[in-house]
Design goal:
heterodimer; A: alpha+beta; Folate-binding fold; four-stranded antiparallel β-sheet; two-stranded antiparallel sheet; 2 helices; globular; B: alpha/beta; FAD/NAD(P)-binding domain; D-Amino Acid Oxidase, Chain A, domain 2; eight-stranded mixed β-sheet; 24% strand; nucleotide-binding (chain B); nucleotide binding (chain B); cytoplasm (chain B); FMN (chain B)
């Protein structure tokens, strides 16, 4: 079972309290009507799906109920960090540096 | 290729079955091929077989990063059915069931296709309405599927608990009798043997690290652990790793890779005569010919390449199974495993040409690719050979995610399947 740190509750809790909410930092266009079909496709459907560190959203459903972001390695499922929604996207180099 | 028949079995029994020749040779890559297929699972090996047999293209290599059939082909729960809602899906999956019927004879290899029937259990009014809609749609498409009352379900599948007091009461079910199971390893081995006999090279333990393109954008070959292999056409059939492979050619696809888990019990004598699925509580179960109960459900919630998955999902699955089949509550589970499945937003596959000339992809099968192995391989080979889709896979394009012409089996079933 994954143990996930909720940045709002500041507690590390079992996976079953959380729900996964897809890739993080997918920005909705400010003016949707101006988007081309290709831009809509990218926004709605195309995902990075990396084998390695993945920026993703989680929701502490059975806790504070809030959405937050995380960086997780999709090979080991190890969480590199979690951070509050709206916080800047952490640089990968700083996270990978922590591991050594 | 030495054919299997009663006489050859008898002959080899005299020497204790110690002198069978190898079923296909261990191939080393040549410098150039007409077609390189990435991924030696059932879909990739099958495509190589149909390329050789039906299109006369035998200068073909199938390359895999691991061993043959060691990915999702050897990790699924072997269920075969074609009771999908939409016309496009019904044609594709039923084409596959048509090919399953004769596959053992076609390949001279016993894939143990067993038409034991797939029973999908309805627990709520919504289930009943949804399944009856499926049944009507299926019958209009010539796909067999019929409605059973709870009593008839119990008759068809005796271990079922149909007590109205059950946590998940069974109010009826949809039965596809032509559906069933097959031995998944034999599918990979049978296609590999038959393809190799027609000149296809099967190259195992050789990861493809990149797809190379020329200055005109066309594919020129693949970089592998055993060096560069030139190819006129490259066809990717790499399941959960499709995104990773296709990205090296500059193609981004609407895919996400999730772990899908399965587990088996200790082997017991025959007790479970069919395949039973419950979409509402999300679990399915059958019994293998070895006697193990084979159990599965949906994917884990998060994307991953770990081929493991988490225990909470197993607990949820087993909780559902033991409620519907209380007889199994004391069974001991032997082992569990995971495979990485590539899921599209509409839960229908992509079998298509790509924007890159000479590059083809067969992906997005999500949690239900095994059943489609022969049909998918057949139409994929057609697409590669003729550089245009077969009428059956023509709707399963990449472009549908731009035009909005989805084949939305996700919404139709409301579960991963």
């Amino acid at each position: 079972m994954l143990l996930i740190h909720c940045p709002y509750c500041d507690e590390t809790l079992p996976e079953v309290e959380f729900t996964y909410a897809g890739q993080a930092h997918v920005v909705r266009a400010a003016d949707p009507a101006s988007q081309s079909d290709e831009e809509w496709e990218n926004f709605l459907y195309i995902r990075s799906n990396p084998k390695g560190p993945h920026y993703e959203r989680w929701r502490h459903l059975h806790g504070c109920g809030r959405f937050f972001n995380a960086v997780r390695d999709t090979i080991s499922d190890r969480f590199l960090t979690t951070y509050k929604a709206g916080a800047p996207r952490p640089e990968l180099s700083s996270l990978l540096g922590d591991r050594t | 290729m030495a054919r299997f028949n009663a006489l050859s079995l008898l002959k080899h029994s005299l020497t204790g079955h110690k002198n069978w020749p190898e079923q296909w040779p261990e191939a080393q890559p040549r410098a150039e091929y007409d077609v390189v297929i990435v991924g030696a699972g059932g879909h990739g090996l099958g495509a190589a077989y149909y390329l050789a047999k039906q299109h006369g293209i035998t200068n073909v290599a199938v390359i895999d990063k691991g061993w043959l059939g060691g990915g999702n082909t050897g990790r699924n729960t072997t269920i075969i059915r074609s009771n999908y809602l939409y016309d496009e899906s019904a044609r594709l999956y039923d084409h596959s069931v048509d090919l399953w019927e004769d596959l053992s004879q076609e390949l001279n290899y016993n894939v143990m296709y067993s038409k034991r029937g797939v029973l999908m259990l309805a627990h709520t009014v919504h289930d009943v309405q949804s399944f009856k809609r499926h049944i009507h749609s299926n019958r209009l498409n010539g796909v067999d599927n019929r409605w059973l009352t709870a009593g008839e379900c119990k008759e068809y599948c005796p271990p079922l608990n149909i007590s109205p007091k059950a946590r998940y009461p069974v109010v009826g079910g949809a039965l596809q009798e032509r559906a069933g199971t097959a031995r998944h390893d034999a599918v990979a081995w049978g296609y590999a043997r038959a393809a190799a006999a027609r000149g296809v090279d099967i190259i195992q333990n050789c990861p493809v690290t990149a797809i190379r393109r020329g200055p005109d954008g066309r594919v020129t070959g693949v970089d592998t652990a055993k060096g560069f292999i030139r190819a006129k056409k490259v066809a990717v059939s790499a399941a959960g790793h499709t995104s990773v492979v296709m990205e090296t050619a500059g193609v981004r696809l609407p895919l996400e890779s999730f772990p899908l888990q399965a587990l088996v019990s200790e082997p017991v004598k025959p007790i479970f005569p069919c395949v039973a699925m419950s979409n509402a509580v999300h679990a399915y179960i059958s019994q293998s010919d070895k006697g193990e109960l084979v159990i599965g459900s949906g994917t884990d919630q998060y994307t991953s390449y770990s081929q493991r998955g988490g225990l909470p999902l197993i607990e949820h699955t087993i909780a559902a199974i033991t409620e519907i089949f209380p007889i199994f509550s004391r069974m001991r589970m032997l082992r569990k495993w995971g495979g990485i499945v590539d899921v599209t937003p509409d839960r229908s596959p992509i079998i298509a040409k790509t924007p890159v000339p000479g590059l083809y992809v067969n992906c997005g099968w999500g949690t239900g690719g095994f059943k489609a192995t022969p049909g998918s391989a057949h139409v994929f080979a057609w697409t590669i050979a003729r550089d245009e889709p077969h009428p059956i896979n023509a709707p399963f394009t990449i472009e549908r995610f731009r035009t909005g012409r989805l084949i939305d089996e996700a919404a139709a079933a409301a579960v991963a399947h």
